[in-house]
Input
Amino acid sequence: MKLAIIVPCYNEEEVLPETTEQLTRVLANLKSRGSIDDGLVLYVDDGSRDRTWELIEAYSAEKQDVAGVKLAHNAGHQQALWAGLEWAAANADALLTAYYPGQEGGTAVADVLFGDYNPAGRLPISVAANVGQLPVYYNKRAPKPHNYVEMSAAPLYAFGYGLSYTQFAYSNLAIAKKGDAYSVTFDVKNVGERDGEEVAQLYIHDQVASVSQPLLQLKKFDRLSIAKGETRKVEFILTAEDLAIIDRNMKSVVEPGDFDIMVGGSSDNLPLRGVLTVE
Output
């Protein structure tokens, strides 16, 4: 595998010699361990987003495996790096978003890329595929958003989304009254080849309410460490507070009726669905 480290900068002369020396040592170390066949450091003008992604596209065409790493710690970097995200999503085999990881960020990124650590991060936002979609967020109120003439209204990456080096399967959803609350139980199985962590998420939707409600509302989530082949039973307790709405009189009330219960690994991947009835 070849590895290219792309360093955005306004002028290559401005890059500290120590930075270049450290990156060169990293490449040499990876090569000596057999992690990569070859590597190079590319310096790209930070003021030219198009040139940055042209270079990435040209280099990636020469190898089979492409992993993109996004580091951004201010608005300018966010704008420049998200600009080519749609291309990266379509062409890269993996995309790692590290934001501003701190001085040990390089070690953490390397551990993830070379499989020494199994990542389990989940997006706390929805990532737009195009600026024309903004604002993009998962808990829009009814009616359901319609697609644009030119493109889908779906985000590029949905709220709660995130991958790891293993996979998980959901099954056996059960909903039961438990005193003044409601118990929602289900199974999560690690069906992949590695131990890993899953973030199980529970969303609700009030089918008929006196005030328009979001199509999805995250109410519960839990991070689960599950060994390969293991199945974990999960229970979430929904209370009156979870089912309450603010009515037209600005009062918190629980209205009788049916609530859709949806469980899965992200807001756009909810394989388990059931109905909870409040009488």
